[in-house]
């Protein structure tokens, strides 16, 4: 169990990010604050466009700037504010201590290089201590449940299924021994059965390696049994956050209530987000 009194692994405070274009400025993330203990799991939930990915990408300073601009805030990781860190020092964190897994494994992997080559590259960047990269890479492929790691090592991304590609992405994150794994909609592009397997795998590696996981999802159905804490985002703002069990049992904000009500239940797959009363939410969110 993580010690709740310990310094947080990650502390995001008052983070605001805007996108500037010639015509207008869009505030994508607006005054967001949350923190994560080492080894904990946090789910950030909200519908498409609510600012989840922008928040996630900002942790590793992965947003293209311009057009992105940090308006305010701090992203303190292990006591260091990553937003003010010079670029060379930041490389130690991005991809190393903070690893990412994205929605589309096929676009995250490079189609012209073998899995083994890409794993080796990741280790060359972040694991100078490793003498035997091939051995460590094969071990990582085994750890993510790939039965024939030798064959996978020689494969090119297009030769693998979506689920296998996502396992390779997780292996690539694992070899770097991150303290935080940011998984942005990691199962959205996958079949339902494969989704469950990948979430199970993330849960397993979290307990085995003690890394923290930040899971980004639009689907409240994935949160239960996975995350300790939940942050609910709506139009760039956090509308509610708290421990998963109490938040699911008694959601306070109408948007959270609506999202939870929209989780499809067995035999009831037609319920959609369209039932959300946006006019009512607007009146609740706009200070009068
Ligand atoms: N590259 C970009 N250029 C301009 N605006 C962007 C860009 N990326 C994101 N945004 C804006 O930020 C908002 C939040 O996007 P995002 O974080 O990707 O949402 P999601 O919650 O679906 O992950 C979007 O609605 C969009 O207006
Ligand atoms: Mg997104």
Topology record:
Blueprint: E1 10-20, E2 25-36, E3 41-45, H1 52-59, E4 68-77, E5 80-81, H2 87-90, E6 98-101, H3 105-108, H4 115-126, H5 133-143, H6 149-154, H7 162-175, E7 180-184, H8 192-209, E8 212-217, E9 229-234, E10 237-243, H9 244-249, H10 254-261, H11 278-285
The structure holds adenosine-5'-diphosphate (ADP) and magnesium ion (MG).
Summarize the entry for a quick read.
By secondary structure, the chain is of the alpha/beta class. It has helices at 52-59, 87-90, 105-108, 115-126, 133-143, 149-154, 162-175, 192-209, 244-249, 254-261, 278-285; strands at 10-20, 25-36, 41-45, 68-77, 80-81, 98-101, 180-184, 212-217, 229-234, 237-243.
Q: What is the fold named in CATH at topology level of the largest domain?
A: Rossmann fold
Please tally the β strands and state the result: 10
Radius of gyration: 19 Å
SS content category = alpha/beta
Q: Which hetero ligands occur in this complex?
A: adenosine-5'-diphosphate, magnesium ion
Strands of the biggest beta sheet: in what spatial order?
Answer: 6-7-8-3-9-10
How would you characterize the largest beta sheet? 6 strands, mixed
Low-confidence stretches: none
Into which percentage range does the β-strand content fall? 15-25%
CATH superfamily of the largest domain: P-loop containing nucleotide triphosphate hydrolases
Helix content class: 25-40%
| Discrete helix count | 11
Order of helices and strands: EEEHEEHEHHHHHEHEEEHHH
Mean pLDDT: 89
**What is the level-2 CATH architecture name of the largest domain?**
3-Layer(aba) Sandwich
Distance between the termini: 43 Å
């Amino acid at each position: 169990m993580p010690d709740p009194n310990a310094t947080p692994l990650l502390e995001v405070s008052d983070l605001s990010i805007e996108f500037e274009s010639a015509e207008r400025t869009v505030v994508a993330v607006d005054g967001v604050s949350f923190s994560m203990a080492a080894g904990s799991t946090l789910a950030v939930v909200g519908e498409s466009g609510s600012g989840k990915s922008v928040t996630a990408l900002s942790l590793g300073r992965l947003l293209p700037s311009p057009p992105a601009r940090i308006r305010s805030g701090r992203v303190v990781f292990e006591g260091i504010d990553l937003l003010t860190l010079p670029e060379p020092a930041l490389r130690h964190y991005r991809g190393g201590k903070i690893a990412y897994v994205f929605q589309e494994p096929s676009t995250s992997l490079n189609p012209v290089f073998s899995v083994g080559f890409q794993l080796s590259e990741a280790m060359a960047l972040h694991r100078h201590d490793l003498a035997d990269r091939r051995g460590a890479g094969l071990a990582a492929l085994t750890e993510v449940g790939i039965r024939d790691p030798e064959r996978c090592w020689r494969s090119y991304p297009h030769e693998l299924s979506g689920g296998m590609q996502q396992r390779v992405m997780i292996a690539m994150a694992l070899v770097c021994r991150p303290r935080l794994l940011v998984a942005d909609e990691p199962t959205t592009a996958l079949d339902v059965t494969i989704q469950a397997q990948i979430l199970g795998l993330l849960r397993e590696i979290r307990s085995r390696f003690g890394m923290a996981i930040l899971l980004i999802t639009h689907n409240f159905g994935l949160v239960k049994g996975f995350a300790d804490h939940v942050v609910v985002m709506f139009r760039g703002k956090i509308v509610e956050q708290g421990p998963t069990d109490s938040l699911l049992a008694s959601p306070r904000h109408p948007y959270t209530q609506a999202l939870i009500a929209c989780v499809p239940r067995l035999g009831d797959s037609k319920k959609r987000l369209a039932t959300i009363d946006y006019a009512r939410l607007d009146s609740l969110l706009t200070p009068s």
